[in-house]
Design brief:
Helices cover about 25% and strands about 40% of the residues of chain A. By secondary structure, chain A is of the alpha+beta class. In chain A, strand 4 and strand 5 form a beta hairpin. Classes of the chains: A alpha+beta (about 200), B mainly alpha (about 100).
């Protein structure tokens, strides 16, 4: 008489235990871990095409090369910049080289750059990829690819920014484009970064 | 005997609920820690970001082209004056950030 209810209870217990194990397994597998950092694209130093123009830093420590579709624009007196402007004057491509001015160094460049963006002119910034010991013409650098949103206008940009150590001094090269066109503009921007010459 | 079985089943079920709760909480925390601009949709083309040069021109070896005048947006709370402030860089006008060390 009592054997059947006891058997049912054992079945119920088994079902409950199985459900519990299944739930734990589902939660464990569905839980996202830390996102895998994107791999940094290869950057091979190379001389710029013959048609490109060149801007030398005022202190003579680096040369920024840019394609003829860009034009030099104003900026800091110790830096050089070039940009391709859209019909409304908006920046479609942006290149900048600046001598090292702060406490940035090769070991913590990515963190420094992101902190600088957030404290300066970006409402938010996130790292996409980073690399150290990147070879440049005349030196070695640390690079970060990041995306940020400006405080003014909420413009979304993506950039590659590298701190490059030459024999005599260090400088920063930035190559940026609106996030919406980053993917298509990236090869040209990377070409400009790869052509960056430090002394 | 049967009461023990029921208690055991209840215990297992409670453990499962707790485990599921912990997993959900961790997921939420992970999402909050990514503050990217993903919430923003298509970016409008940046307005004329370049201000007039007020300092002597850099002795670059390529002739500079005149830049577009900037409109003056409202001044946000910032360590660096915006709205064509600071060093009049594009990044003080909603343009891309340059490579300076927070100047």
């Amino acid at each position: 008489m009592t054997a059947r209810p006891v058997r049912y209870r054992r079945y119920a217990l088994a079902v409950l235990a199985a459900a519990a194990v299944l739930t734990i397994a589902i939660v464990a597998f569905a839980r996202p871990g830390r996102p895998t950092p994107a791999s940094f694209p290869s950057l091979v130093p190379a001389v710029a095409p013959a048609s490109w123009l060149h801007l030398t830093l005022p202190d003579g420590t680096a040369v920024l090369s840019y394609p003829p579709s860009l034009q030099q624009i104003s900026g800091d007196t110790d830096a050089v910049s070039a940009a391709r402007l859209g019909p409304g004057g908006g920046i479609q491509l942006y290149l900048n080289a600046t001598p090292r001015q702060g406490t940035e160094n090769l070991a913590h460049w990515a963190a420094f750059r992101l902190a600088l963006l957030r404290s300066d002119d970006a409402a938010s910034a996130r790292e996409v990829a980073a690399a150290e010991r990147v070879k440049f013409r005349g030196g070695t650098g640390s690079c970060v690819i990041d995306a940020y949103v400006t405080r003014i206008g909420a413009h979304q940009y993506q950039e590659i920014a590298c701190l490059v150590q030459g024999r005599q001094s260090a400088s920063v090269i930035v190559a940026a484009a609106p996030a919406a066109t980053w993917a298509e503009e990236r090869p040209l921007l990377f070409q400009a970064v790869a052509a960056y010459l430090v002394r | 005997m049967s009461f023990t079985l029921i208690r055991s089943a209840a215990g297992v079920a409670l453990l499962a609920v707790l485990a599921a709760g912990c997993g959900t909480a961790a997921t939420g925390h992970s999402a909050v820690s990514k503050p990217a601009g993903a919430a923003h949709s298509a970016a409008p083309e940046p307005a004329a970001p370049l201000g007039p040069r007020q300092s002597p021109p850099a002795p670059a070896r390529v002739t500079a082209s005149p830049s577009a005048p900037a409109t003056a947006p409202s001044q946000p709370a910032d360590s660096i004056p915006q709205g064509n402030g600071g060093d009049h860089d594009p990044d003080n006008n909603g343009g891309p950030s340059d490579g300076d060390g927070n100047i």
